[in-house]
Amino acid sequence: MSLKTNRRDFLKTFGVATVCACTGMAGMNACSMIRGVSQTPVIPEGTYALEGNLLTFDLEMIDCLQETGGSGKLSLMHEGDEVKLLIIHHESGSFKAFSDRCTHAGRELNYQHGEEKIQCSSFGKATYGLNGRVKKGPAEGPLAIYPAVLKENQLIINIS
After folding, report:
1. What is the Cα–Cα distance from 97 to 150, expressed in whole angstroms?
2. Phi, psi of 128, deg, nearest 5
3. Could you tell me if 90 and 118 are in contact, meaning their C-beta atoms sit under 8 angstroms apart?
4. 137: phi > 0 → left, psi -120 to 50 → alpha, else beta; which?
5. Whole-prediction pTM
6. How far is Cα 66 from Cα 72, in angstroms, rounded to an integer?
7. How far is the C-alpha of 51 from the C-alpha of 53, rounded, in Å?
8. Does the domain formed by 1-160 have CATH 3.40.50.980?
9. 55-114 residue pLDDT tens
10. What is the DSSP code (8-state) at residue 142?
11. What tens digit of pLDDT does each residue of 104-155 get?
């Protein structure tokens, strides 16, 4: 058995391997296949309180939500279920709260303020509008939206 390989055989083998690799990657074009990492800052403990179904946030203590275009994420247990929230400071004095789970495979989301969209952190990049509806990608259902009300410098979100 000879270990000698000429240039032509090498290029053929390399070409076949490249085609196989590209075909395999094309098959993984969905957010359930390759996990991404959310770039959204975590809202620190001690900056919010949960009473019943109402989450109250002290906005003076949450740097990531102070500026228009800012966003933060939060994960907590409520009535035996994990609740994951993506909170965005959409416009001056206007906040929105969404489930922080892509409806395709449950991955975390990122808010793209300049583009007015919410996007899955994984490879398939399901994209949602600020109404929670799917704009493109593999997700089939809308994001859950939670009512958010601003009272003085407190943000109150109903997670029921």
Report:
1. 12
2. -125, 150
3. no
4. left
5. 0.78
6. 10
7. 6
8. no
9. 999 999 999 999 999 999 999 999 999 999 999 999 888 999 999 999 998 999 999 999
10. P
11. 989 999 999 999 999 998 877 899 999 999 999 999 899 999 999 999 999 9
